[in-house]
Amino acid sequence: MAGKKIVVGMSGGVDSSVAAYLLKEEGYEVIGVTMQIWQDMPSALQEEEGGCCGLTAAEDARRVAETLGIRHYVMNFKKEFRENVMDYFIREYLQGRTPNPCIACNRYVKWDALLKKSLALGADYIATGHYAQVERLANGRYAVRNSVTAAKDQTYALYNLTQDQLAHTKMPVGAYAKEEIRAIAEKIGLSVAHKKDSQEICFIPDHDYAGFIDRECGESVPPPGAFVSVQGEVLGTHRGITHYTVGQRKHLGIALGYPVFVTEIRPEKNEVVLGTDEQVYTDRLYAGSLHAMALPDLADGMKLTAKIRYSHAGSRCVVRRIKEDEICCEFEEPVRAVTPGQAVVLYDGAYVAGGGTILRR
Questions:
Q1: Largest separation between any pair of C-alpha atoms in the chain
Q2: Which one is catalytic: 102, 202, 317, 329?
Q3: 202 is catalytic
Q4: Digit-coded pLDDT (tens) for 19-49
Q5: Catalytic: which of 105, 217, 317, 328?
Q6: Angle between helices 57-68 and 14-26 (to 10 degrees)
Q7: Is 105 a catalytic residue?
Q8: Which residue from 141, 174, 219, 298 has the highest number of Cβ atoms inside 10 Å of its Cβ?
Q9: Percent of the chain with pLDDT over 90
Q10: How far apart are CA 339 and CA 39, in angstroms?
């Protein structure tokens, strides 16, 4: 690929570092870019967490770039990250939904903002260290394909990338298993060869989502309300809807003498509905904010495989078109904890057909 310029989003981790190496080996002119997205964080905590947002990320990426003999820059995307990821995360929780900030970050920061700046600099492509692959199909459309390793596959978080974004994207790591990537890094002497993987949600390193929202919202944080049964009986008092998500059993703060789970959150009534494990299951879900990828449209009657969360193995379903921007997925077997705000990602074999945001069960 002599003469082709590619910008690699380098988080300072082993995956993006090896991605830069593999692309250089293919003949690309590789430029490393670390996206500065963090807002404010104590230096000690940044040092401890590391990952894609910590204080050490840019320095680790710079050292890797020096080892590989490529240029490296730090670009400021704080505003884009705040508006499209953090504010979105808070807004969704306040409305009783459970968002996936990584999906929003991929679409609007790692691709939309970075791609625009990269193309303006004369680059032909951008690349990341995601465990996924990009292919152009026989129908002319670009699609994300499963990585070779199911254990690290990250296609779920990439379902809403546009055709233009995919046309300018490379994901070389998707052809390797994690162990192979670390072995390559060690072989070529990268200092990050055994660096731990970054946290799932980088801007909440302590995993206390409700605490983060409380601090951000101040006095406007949702107040306590009623725990109710599926039948409507008041069971107790909850701490505020931002403390709960569908399927949750632990840390409910209520003892009924038998196991109960969150089955629904009703922000308009400030209620959290509790039920049995059996009541957490459903044979359908409704989704909106639809996005088609491998297929030009998500048509009525399609038989696909749906993943309702990142860790879900996938379940067979039939797609029913409800209206222009809404579908119903009817599952062959009931699925557990369908969660509004999360994505349902639909697969046609190994390819992402499309997906949408879960509205309700």
A1: 69
A2: 202
A3: yes
A4: 999 999 999 999 999 999 876 655 444 444 4
A5: 105
A6: 20
A7: yes
A8: 174
A9: 87
A10: 28
